Amino acid sequence: MTKAVIEAYFDAFNKGDVEAMLALLDTDIEHHVNEGGIRRGKLAFAEFCAHMNHAYKETLTDIVAFSNEGGTRGAAEFVVNGQYLKTDPGLPEAKGQKYVLPAGSFFSLKNGKIARVTTYYNLQDWIRQVSA
């Protein structure tokens, strides 16, 4: 079940279906952002998605999901295929640059819902790609 929830989460991401993503989250979701803070709650997660969808266009490929036997933890490795659309404060200027970046996410689940998601990627590699 955990693996199926993770796969559904990424399927919704690739479809741009934020509502479907939110439906998979526990009310008290903790969203740990790469090199950033922790966002708590569905509202903060939805706000993050709105920001990302404004500044970036991303599709995830080569997704491989894993889960523990107890169904409480999982992970996924994938490739981010993106385009930088609008300048994000503190980052290089956006000019429609494309990028390809390996990444991974780690999950905790509670009652069949995602209670924590932590995503990692190499920010310096991304900066190098969009600055080239």
Written description of the protein model:
The protein is α+β, with helices and mostly antiparallel strands and 132 residues long. It has one domain (2-131): Roll (Nuclear Transport Factor 2, Chain: A). It is built from four helices and six strands, in the order ααββαββββα. Strands 2-1-6-5-4-3 form a six-stranded mixed β-sheet. The longest helix is centred in the first third of the chain and has 14 residues, at 2-15. The model has no long low-confidence stretch (mean pLDDT 94).
Descriptive keywords:
alpha+beta; 6 strands; 132 residues; Nuclear Transport Factor 2, Chain: A; 6-stranded mixed β-sheet; 4 helices; 33% helix
Per CATH, the class reads Alpha Beta
Helical stretch tally: 4
For the CA atoms, what is the radius of gyration? 15 Å
- Catalogue the unreliable spans: none
β-sheet strand percentage: 35-45%
Structural class, judged by helices and strands?
A: alpha+beta
Instruction: Assign the CATH architecture.
Output: Roll
- Quote the CATH topology: Nuclear Transport Factor 2, Chain: A
**First-to-last CA distance:** 42 Å
Total number of domains: 1
Largest sheet: 6 strands, mixed
Residue-averaged pLDDT? 94
Quaternary: single chain
Q: Strand order across the biggest sheet?
A: 2-1-6-5-4-3
Brief characterization of the structure:
Helix content is 33%, strand content 43%. The chain has helices at 2-15, 18-23, 42-55, 123-131; strands spanning 25-32, 38-40, 56-67, 73-84, 98-110, 113-121.
